[in-house]
């Protein structure tokens, strides 16, 4: 009787190539593993940001309040609101829902 384990052996020892390569074999094949691609993406983001800031200066707004007339008001407001949400989540909400390290022990 022949050994089933020897005949069904798969992997690098048997000479067969697996359908799903290991993560170590895939290193360097992802789009953002190349620093040049990351630099290109950041340049595109900064150019887009500059264009949007310039367009905001040229677009006529219909403000309801005086502070909405300020240049780049909505950009600054959005940034401050985002920072406030992160700070509130970290220092106010996290302690409310955080469990101790030995909670499941």
Characterization of the model:
This protein has 105 residues and is mostly helical. Among the domains are: 27-59; 66-97. Helices cover 54% and strands 0% of the residues. The chain has four helices and no strands. The chain has helices spanning 4-7, 23-26, 35-58, 73-97. The longest helix is centred in the C-terminal third of the chain and has 25 residues, at 73-97. It is flat, with a radius of gyration of 28 Å. The relative contact order is 0.04.
Helical coverage, percent range: 40-55%
Number of helices, counting only DSSP H or I runs of 4 residues or more: 4
Mean pLDDT: 81
Order of helices and strands: HHHH
The dominant shape is flat
Distance between the termini: 51 Å
Would you count the extended β strands for me? 0
Strand content: under 5%
- Low-pLDDT parts are none
Q: Can you summarize this structure?
A:
The chain has helices spanning 4-7, 23-26, 35-58, 73-97.
Which tags fit this structure?
flat, mainly alpha, 105 residues, single chain
Which SSEs are present, and which pair or pack?
Blueprint: H1 4-7, H2 23-26, H3 35-58, H4 73-97
């Amino acid at each position: 009787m022949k050994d089933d384990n020897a005949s069904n052996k798969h992997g690098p020892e048997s000479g067969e190539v697996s359908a799903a390569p290991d993560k170590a074999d895939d290193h360097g094949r992802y789009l953002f593993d190349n620093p040049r691609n990351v630099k290109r993406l950041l340049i595109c983001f900064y150019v887009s940001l500059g264009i949007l800031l310039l367009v905001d200066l040229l677009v006529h707004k219909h403000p309801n309040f005086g502070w909405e007339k300020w240049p780049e008001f909505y950009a600054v407001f959005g940034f401050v609101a985002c920072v406030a949400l992160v700070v509130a989540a970290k220092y106010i909400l996290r302690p409310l829902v955080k469990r101790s390290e030995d909670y499941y022990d």
